[in-house]
Amino acid sequence: MDNLIVYVVDFVGGEYVVDRLSDCTSD
Fold it and tell me: Domain range spanning residue 10?
């Protein structure tokens, strides 16, 4: 599960916002 990348697509204001989330990156 090191290379676990989750792509979250949110539909906001008629635009597609893609957030790339990784379990190794914490902000």
Answer: 1-27
pLDDT digits (tens, 9 = 90+) for 5-19: 566 677 767 776 666
In angstroms, what CA-CA distances link 8 with 3, 5, 24? Answer: 16, 10, 16
Number of domains present in the structure of the chain: 1
Are the C-beta atoms of 21 and 10 separated by less than 8 Å? no
Q: Is the pTM higher than 0.85? A: no
Nearest to 18 by CA among 7, 3, 4, 5: 7
